[in-house]
Input
Amino acid sequence: MTAFFALASSLLWGLADFGGGLLTRRTPALTVVVVSQTIAAAVLGVIVVVTGAWSEAGPRLWFAIAAGLVGPVALLCFYKALALGPMGVVSPLGTLGVAVPVGVGLFLGERPGLVQVAGVAVAVLGVVLAGGPQLRGAPVQRQAILLTLIAALGFGAVFALIAEASTTVTGLFLALFVQRVTNVAAGGLALYASVKKGAAAVPEGGFLWASLPALAFVGLADVAANGTYSIAAQHGPVTVAAVLASLYPVVTALAARGFLSERLRTIQAAGAGLALVGTLLLATG
Output
């Protein structure tokens, strides 16, 4: 069950990143984040009311609020890093965030077997290579590396926090709703500040209403991925769930290959293969 839900998280996060990447080519990244998360919050709000999830309110919701505050900061740092440095450096470094939930799992006493340890190592290496690391070329700005590492730490923290935000299914609905509302509030403030400084909130031709379905998909896929990851982390070792859920860059690369006909570099294809081998070791270990 852990492997199934964690891999579902990878699939959903990978597709959400792919969709978000396409949308940010035409619409400011902050606007994409705020609109997509607002749609997700609205849908979750309806679910919370229908299921009566408000009854699950308790101290654990602070984990959801923390995840909602950390997520937008990590995302903004990541986008800024992509603007400053080569994607071939930034993208693989961003996957290092998996060290946070894995470290939490080890701290809490989890001790994966030898096969699973090998699976973790192979899968993480595969994810880094699937990002197409740039091994030579112009030097990278220190600021880009620092922002990427902050983003990775933030992404990993969200993994760890959302896994602690609930213990029941209805509680998970409420936790995800609170996380999304916090995301929208934090992202909205950042967007307001950006506009005040002169940045555009919509494309030159105006908001692309035809992109609403795609924005809804990105927001809902992201929510679903958080939910399936939380379930995976609650039903099995966090060390396994976190690594399997971190395979989403492989999904994004394959989606770009399938939908945009982008050719995978040899190193990316090798990384995808290693990620698959690591997945099998983790699932069977």
